[in-house]
Design brief:
Elements (H helix, E strand, L loop, with lengths): L1 H17 L1 E7 L8 H4 L3 E4 L4 E4 L5 E7 L2 E8 L3 E2 L2 E6 L7 E5 L17 E3 L3 E2 L11 H5 L2 H21 L3 H23 L2 H41 L1
Parallel strand pairs: 1-9
Antiparallel strand pairs: 1-4, 2-3, 2-5, 5-7, 6-10, 7-8
Length: about 230
């Protein structure tokens, strides 16, 4: 049992020798002047794969970071931070720090580098309070339902003036159509579908008859005029 334990200790020591303690600090500013304003925050790599806490002076350490490429971000409830790309090498060299924009691929590598140890600055403060909307008369008139109501009201107000200026024949035709539509609606609402459809078909058939009677009358009057002209010539 001693030999496996010894091998395990040697392997863990080799891994710890190759790993790196990633160090940095948060620089306080007007948005976040102290740890009390920051609250409980964590500095994580690759969405929590590795993490470290923030001390009172703003420093943090993520221990035993193996070689690889990581995305560093700060989890804070009330503040926003920039994300960083961290490249940790197997050789005994300092890691490379580059700015990272969410959604961009990790390759190719950006040429710009940032100094190490890391220095993170709060960029914005999260505001979760949504003020209650106050009464806005202009916004109310932008509602489509309100516009339809206003249009209907204007039509009702202008209808008497339009009726006065309307031709008597057109007025009578309008009243007849309105009476027919009222009868059809009352029949359909009462459940008498057969009577409603019959009135609808009868109302639709009146117009072709009227249109056909018009040319017939014109033709008969034209024929009478021609006959009277012939009689005069004789």
């Amino acid at each position: 049992m001693r030999i496996p334990l010894t091998l395990f200790a040697l392997a863990s020591s080799c891994i710890s020798a190759l790993a790196l303690d990633l160090k940095g600090r948060i620089q306080w500013n007007e948005l976040c002047p102290s740890l009390k304003d920051l609250g409980q925050a964590k500095v994580i790599l690759d969405n929590g794969k590795l993490r470290g806490g923030v001390t009172r002076d703003g420093s943090f350490i993520i221990p035993d970071v193996p070689a690889g490429t990581y995305v560093l971000s700060v989890l804070a409830h009330d503040h926003q931070f920039d994300q960083m790309r961290i490249d940790v090498f197997e050789a005994d060299t300092l890691p490379e720090v580059r700015p990272y924009f969410p959604g961009t691929p990790l390759s190719p590598v950006a040429p710009a580098t940032l100094p190490y140890p890391l220095v993170l600055t709060p960029r914005a403060r999260n505001d979760y309070f949504v003020p209650r909307e106050s009464f806005n008369l202009l916004l109310m008139f932008k509602n489509p339902m309100m516009l339809m109501m206003l249009g209907a009201g204007a039509l009702v107000l202008l209808m008497p003036t339009m009726m006065k200026n309307m031709d008597p024949e057109v007025m009578e035709e309008f009243k007849e159509r309105h009476a027919k539509m009222t009868n059809i609606q009352s029949s359909l609402q009462s459940g008498d579908l057969a009577a409603g459809f019959s009135q609808l078909l009868a109302g639709g058939g009146d117009e072709p008859k009227a249109a056909a009677s018009g040319p017939a009358k014109g033709a008969s009057s034209g024929g009478a005029k021609q006959r009277s002209g012939k009689n005069k010539r004789r």
